[in-house]
Amino acid sequence: MPEGKTLFPKIFQTNQLLFYERFRAYQDYILADCKASEVKEFTADFLEKVLETCGWRAVWHTNVFKVLVEVFCAFPALQMATSFSSSSAWLRADVPGHLSRIRSSPLLVTLCHLLVTIVLIDLPDYSVSSMRVTDVDFAALKAVVRLAEPYLCDSQVSAFTMECMKELLDLKEHRLPLQELWVVFDDSGVFDQTALAIEHVRFFYQNIWRSWDEEEEDEYDYFVRCVEPRLRLHYDILEDRVPSGLVVDYRNLLSQCEESYRKFLNLRCSLSNCNSDSEQENISMVEGLKLYSEMEQLKQKLKLIENPLLRYVFGYQKNSNIQAKGARSSGQKITHVVSSTMIAGLLRSLLTDRLCQEPGEEEREIQFHSDPLSAINACFEGDTVIVCPGHYVVHGTFSIADSIELEGYGLPDDIVIEKRGKGDTFVDCTGADIKISGIKFVQHNAVEGILIVHRGKTTLENCVLQCETTGVTVRTSAEFLMKNSDLYGAKGAGIEIYPGSQCTLSDNGIHHCKEGILIKDFLDEHYDIPKISMVNNIIHNNEGYGVVLVKPTIFSDLQENAEDGTEEDKALKIQTSGEPDVAERVDLEELIQCASGKMELYARTDPSEQVEGNCEIVNELIAASTQKGQMKKKRLSELGITQADDNLMSQEMFVGIVGNQFKWNGKGSFGTFLF
Fold it and tell me: Which parts of the sequence belong to the SHC SH2 domain (predicted)?
């Protein structure tokens, strides 16, 4: 022990319980199907069954001090007598250890029965069943304690002498909350359940219970409605499965709701003391309604985050609304240099290659950082971040809301940025024109994607993305350009393309993912078809398909209807299976050019596996666009609008699919997923 520290006895380590252990305890043993108004009653019943009523020591732990105390029996003779006078207590398997030793001696048993007789004579008004003396108030969740011997106390201030502590206990009538008591370890096993029960109560009131829960409507049992979602959220936060920004928001909302509820209670109490129909009462009622409305809004936001199905939608909306800083008021642009250690040779190379001032060019400020996250957070519009060779570990999100350049100085394998923590997206882009180049991004044990482009344009060039869950996500209205890069390891899709986005992929490798590229449903009438260009990419060794198109079941229904439709419908029906010959591809190209003249199709003359994959993707995209056009035309006809746009590519979709190689993908080069 460090000098000056008190050597306390060991306590039961109960704060590392797993999720399922707490889940089972609350569901099966403590709360069951009780309502919020019955929580205290059920908790008291549980404690009365499992808690040793006296004879155990604990550490009274507060924010200021900790002191060794013991829960004692005020009338030990009566306690022992009642324990032995009841046959149920005599047969209990969990009686304290000293009682089990006593009943092994016939002489002591006889003496105890004699003691019972004496007590009954002295206390004639009590029955045996009513004499179970306890020093734990189960309803109030408090225990009667005294200072243990020898006196052990450890505090941040030296004012807590034994006399001061005795005075403090006298003020509290020697009654302490169970949540502040940590049971001292005892290898006999007698107090194991006591320590565990107190831990469950402590955890519940610290992390699950809310002061306003009792006033909520009891339409559903309390465990399902409140305990389970809050317990799951607690463990998701512990395991870094919730974005850090969302965790901060949740805790702030919780504090605000607690404060509003406290004000509401004070106001309600003051109203009960006011004269009826007074002006002050009317004003207070208006304030009370405002507080109540504010509190209800806060509670709804809390429930939204507590819901495991909705919290990530909420998190996405929050994180995608990062505000851009814009240009500095002075108009100056800064170059940020990131290096864990700066040596003379590296600095000379930087000055020559990157920081050399051109004749007549405006002076530019240079700032140095030890980690890339701090450099990005310091950026304004037009800044540049140069990352020197090294291995950098970050614990937050790269939230890029301004048009900046993030470039590595050297080869990507020499400039590694590794993300720790499961909850946050690695790179979050909302800037109008973001450029990232020459960096390797490594992600471990994540639940969010490695890069999300919410809006604006993001260019990724000569980078390596070692993913864990989803790779790159291109949201609606966003534009993503990826060149000469390598992406692998995603447990989902390497690249997810949302409706209404633009995605250009050139000379990349996408491999060892669940799926290579996933094009999400774009048949919804509210979204345009994404503009997709894929040139000279190698998509290989993915578990599923190289490219997957996700579309609703109505798509396949329309295709089946087209088989029995008009000649025009049949002409628009496109073959998506088998091996199309060159003539079929030429006819398809002519059809596209005649229809709109706005779509380009590239295909080689050799019917290899790679070309077949390219054509299959194009065919499916065109078929989807055709069906969407038919759906739109039908809706306009129902509204009485007969002059619908007959162009096959009315959305002005540009697709360049050429030179891509699809190799060794588990299910083939292209597939569709219906939902």
Answer: 21-80, 131-311
